[in-house]
Amino acid sequence: MESIDDYVVRRLTEWSEGEPLPEASAAAPDPDPGLLLRYLDAQLQSRHLDFALRWLQARKEGFYTIGSSGHESNAAVALALRPTDPALLHYRSGGFYAARAGQVPGSTPIADVLHSGMASRRDPISGGRHKVFGHRGLNIIPQTSTISSHLPRAVGMAFALGRGVVTNDVPDDAVVVCSFGDASANHSTAVGAMNAAGYCAHQGLPLPLLLVCEDNGIGISTRSPHGWIQRSLSMLPGIEYVPADGTEPAHLLATAIEVAGRVRERRRPAVLHLRTVRFMGHAGSDAELGYRTSGEIVADYARDPILATAALLARHGVLSPAEALVRYEAMRERVMSQARTLADRAERLDSPQAVVAPLTARRLPQVSAAAARAGAGRERAFGGRPPETRQPMTLAQSINAALHDAMLTWPQALVFGEDVARKGGVYGVTRGLRKAFGGKRVFDTLLDEQTILGTALGSALTGALPIPEIQYLAYLHNAEDQLRGEAASLRFFSAGQYENGMVVRIAGLAYQKGFGGHFHNDNSVAVLRDIPGLALAVASHPATAPDLLRQCMALAEQEGRVCVFLEPIALYHQRDLHTEGDGGWLAPYAAPGEWAAREAPLGLVRQVREGADLVMVTFGNGVAMSLRVAEVLAREGADVRVVDLQWLSPLPAESLLKAVWGVPRLLVVDESRAGGGVSEAVVAALADRGFPGAVGRVNSVDSYVPLGPAAGQVLLGEDDVLAAARKLLRPA
Question: In the predicted model, is pLDDT for residue 633 greater than 80?
Fold first, then answer.
């Protein structure tokens, strides 16, 4: 079967020998010759880079062959925009990348893409960690290959730009462009993002977003139903729908310029439905003949956007077919010359430390200084009564006060989520924030966790410091890839050049009385602990929760770290510890002058009770349970130490070892499940580091949390903790 490369060469040769050119489409606008030549060159560059990457793969020097061949018409979108417009690209947007680079003097797009495909440290965006279209100097934000997962971020970035939340180098009138494929348009993430864009447009909220669906009609081997993409995209409320065909370059260039201009001027979203074609299968390993006939494959060659551009140039006397062929072969040599030079010379990441460097890089002095800062205007924000002058507080009250202080300290901070603004949160934790800081900084969102997190991801890229709230821990799971695949991975896949620091507040864990069931009493944190680079803090006591929150804010600002601040619902309004009225779970709020001395750094555990016979290691609700059990054991003659982990990810293993060393018995009190729970990691960390004492653990049952009294049958109880502790203390 003839290759697409051979077909292009043959057709250009035939045209140059006198065979008639394809007929022009009706009423095609006259193109600008210079623009059309730049368009062709970007297309040629992208096509020959696809060929070169497959050549490198055959030599075992290239590792990624999902190409852009047939999609090169997306170069028109780049030419319709400015190089300062943020771009979040589909993995077939090679033409866009080439055209964008052509707008920025000194760019080296051929070497960029080759280094990326070779997993070379000289890849200018990922540093050898992934083949991805991205470049800081081109304002192309790298996206992972997760299907459509970048769309919520794009919506969030456009939303932030529309609200004027810009503190970095993104121009005020920028347009956010986001490309994706027709198959991924069906993914719930894409559907949710487009719904959110329409939701904003329906309310008249500015949203300068240009969505580009690159529709080649097939997702790997599954065809998109005829007419489906047009129907689904054209019915989006509040979003302008504009169709375009990649085989009609004059129309496409004019259409792209017009729609991009309207989005920029009107600050309203639009979707450009760009019909494309796919050549050479889904990827280098894809056996396309397994699901398409050779006749079908070859028939698509006539829709090659490169030939369409060459024909248009010839019809207008700008470039003859023979000259186009010379240009085609010259680009082949230019690309292959660089590929041959780079082959066998790739500088690869050569150690675990080199690979994870963007995730492990620390800015400790800066974080400490930021965590100790206090903002101006505290008297006004707190209504003349700063929290340190008030009565001892509950956990919910202390977090509320800390959020007020955070909004003062970080003027770029935004608080948003379901019911957080007017209502002040389901549990009152955000009460008063909207009144103190206004609706531009504290606002309610639609009921969609993907959109909430996407808004955080996008707004962080404009310079905001987002504090999104997920109303319940169980609600996170339909959106967790926004943290795993997008948020926490950005530093990794950009070699630290891009960051989206944020503090995601989540009300969670179990033990609510008279309310809930699984969706309001979720005791699993495994999915959060499994995300590289993410910092997971768990508040337990009103005395220390503000310190942890400030540390998360400082980490987000100074290290660009994605932090999750987990708040135990059952402890929000608890006042007592041992007996009614003892006030053991209340604490005064620390004044700013005390913050530096009270810092709760990432990686540091907290000892909350002294003891030498047994140490209980715990977190969250387990802290209160362990303290009560320790009192019972003290009456029985045992001296019990209690250690609050505070940080569940990264696990503070070294600090923990110091805190428990010398105690002969250790019990991990873990309210999460026995399988996949925190205790597994704690026990493994102690074993790895040679802890010599006897170790036990006690957990909740491997079960969803049922409604009502049945929850007590599967959740860890104080009787369970007491029994396990007594067993460890029993003489051998």
Answer: yes
Q: Work out whether the CA dihedral 323, 324, 325, 327 comes out positive or negative.
A: positive
Terminal Cα distance for the chain, rounded: 77
Q: Residue 291: how many CB atoms within 10 A of its CB?
A: 14
* Biggest alpha carbon–alpha carbon distance for the chain: 103
Tokens of 506: 């989540």
123-142 pLDDT, tens digit each:
999 999 999 999 999 999 99
Q: How many whole angstroms separate alpha carbon 463 and alpha carbon 157? A: 10
Strand, coil or helix: 211: strand
* pLDDT confidence tier of residue 145, bands split at 50, 70 and 90: low
* Per-residue confidence (pLDDT) for residue 146, from 0 to 100: 66
Phi first, then psi: what are they for 438, rounded to 5°?
Answer: 90, 160
Q: Look up residue 661 and give its two tokens.
A: 């060393």
Averaged pLDDT of the chain: 95
Please state, in angstroms and rounded to a whole number, the distance separating the CA atoms of residues 36 and 46: 16
Average pLDDT of 453-476?
96
| CA pair distance 116, 62, nearest whole angstrom | 9
The whole-angstrom separation of Cα 315 and Cα 31 is 11
Q: Assess if CATH 3.40.50.150 describes domain 606-729.
A: no
What is the spatial distance between Cα 176 and Cα 211, in angstroms, rounded to a whole number?
A: 8
- Per the CB < 8 A criterion, the answer to whether 525 and 670 are in contact is no
The whole-number average pLDDT for the span 518-525 is: 88
Q: Where in the chain is the domain with CATH 3.40.50.920?
A: 606-729
Count Cα neighbours of 84 within 13 Å in the Cβ-side half-sphere.
9
CA–CA gap between residue 484 and residue 49 (Å, rounded): 30
* CB contact at 8 A, 678 and 523: no
Dihedrals phi, psi of 126, to nearest 5 degrees: -95, -10
**pLDDT of 544 above 80:** yes
CATH fourth-level superfamily of 4-12+55-343: Thiamin diphosphate (ThDP)-binding fold, Pyr/PP domains (3.40.50.970)
**For 357-594, CATH number?**
3.40.50.970
Distance from C-alpha of 401 to C-alpha of 381, rounded to nearest angstrom: 10
Of 315, 395, 382, 288, nearest to 67 (Cα)?
Answer: 288
Q: What is the token pair recorded at 19? A: 């065979």
Q: Which residues pair with 606 in a beta bridge?
A: 644
Query: For 647-698, what is each residue's pLDDT tens digit?
Result: 999 999 999 999 999 999 999 999 999 999 999 999 999 999 999 999 999 9
**pTM reported for the whole predicted model:** 0.95
User: How far apart, in whole angstroms, are the C-alpha atoms of residue 310 and residue 250?
Assistant: 11
How far apart (Å, rounded) are the C-alpha atoms in residues 96 and 39? Answer: 10
The 665-673 sheet, strands edge to edge: 606-609, 640-644, 614-618, 665-673, 694-700
Cβ-count burial of 650 within 10 angstroms (0-12 exposed, 13-18 middle, 19+ buried)? middle
The residues, any chain, with a CB within 8 Å of residue 371's CB and separated by 6 or more, are 547, 550, 551, 553, 554, 595, 596, 599
**Residue closest to 77 by CA, chosen among 125, 45, 39:** 39
> For a pLDDT cut of 70, what percent of the chain falls above it?
100
Q: Residues near 556 by Cβ (< 8 Å), separated by ≥ 6?
A: 465, 501, 502, 503, 562, 563
Comma-separated ranges of CATH 3.40.50.970 domains in the chain: 4-12+55-343, 357-594
Q: Which residue from 187, 188, 162 is spatially nearest to 174, judged by alpha carbons?
A: 162
Burial track 373-406 (b if 16+ CB lie within 10 A, e otherwise): bebeebeebbeeebbeeeeebbbbbbbbbbbbbb
Asked whether the CA dihedral 505, 506, 509, 512 is positive or negative, the reply is positive
Taken as a whole, the chain contains a residue count of 732
- CA–CA distance from 570 to each of 395, 401, 581 (Å)? 10, 19, 17
